[in-house]
Amino acid sequence: MELQHIDGEDKGNVLLFALSTCQWCRKTRALLEELNVKYDYVYVDLTSGEEREEVVKELEKWNKDISFPTIVINNDNVIIGFEEENIKKVLG
Known about the structure:
By secondary structure, the protein is an alpha+beta fold. It contains 3 helices and 5 strands, in the order E-E-H-E-H-E-E-H. It has helices at about 25-35, 50-60, 85-90, and strands spanning about 5, 15-20, 40-45, 70-75, 75-80.
C-alpha cells in the first residue's frame, strides 16, 4: 500500500487510515500536525483495485468495523475515531 508521509517528531510508528472526505479525519490530521508528530497516512477512498483490498485488509486487523479515522501506533495501540484527549495523551 502506498502511504503519504508527514515529517515531524518521531513518536513511534504512527499510521492513520482516513477518508479524504471525512471531517473527523481532517481534524485528526490537523491535531497530529499541531502535535508535530511524524506519521504516515492513507486515504482509503482514493485507493482502488488490489491496493484497496490490501489497505482494507490491513485496516480490518486493527478495526473490525472499518471506521474512520483509525490510528495505529507502534503496531499495538489503536485509537478509533477523533479521540482528541486520547491522541494527546498517547502522542502529545
